[in-house]
Amino acid sequence: MKSSDVRDRALRDQVVALVSGRGAHASVEKIVQGIPVAVRGKRPRGLPHSPWEILEHLRIAQWDILEYARNPAHVSPAWPTGYWPTVPEPPNARAWARSVAAFLADLRSVQDLVADPKTDLLAPIPHGQDGHTVLREALLVADHNAYHGAELVTVRRLLAAW
Fold this sequence. Notes:
By secondary structure, this protein is mostly helical. The protein has one domain: Four Helix Bundle (Hemerythrin (Met), subunit A), CATH 1.20.120. α4 runs antiparallel to α5. The longest helix has 25 residues. The mean pLDDT is 96.
């Protein structure tokens, strides 16, 4: 195996690990586990978002970034209203589980896109803007998920649910 192939594989492995949340912080998958139904729609005093709002924002933003990276016909939601639910509570009992499942499926898709040796991580996305690359989008997913994952931990702590 050529040294460039070894470096490419190492880069892909590191980015997949970063996107997965393995490392210096809890993964979103771990953070959303065990949140009691009774607090999913509650906003802690002094903070603007409930666990449901944060989960949905994570799901929508990650989906948007993934689709932007792989789908030339993708149209992003309107900012900022299209990236946040309109109410703090899940609309029904199944909505939470569906949102978690969709988030995790899209996270796996981001990981698969990065891990695929056919994906040129550094080439500008043909339909993208400003030279955006798949690597940039994967790092954006990792950064966004870490930021809002930490926010969700704080919300859980303030709701006595961590």
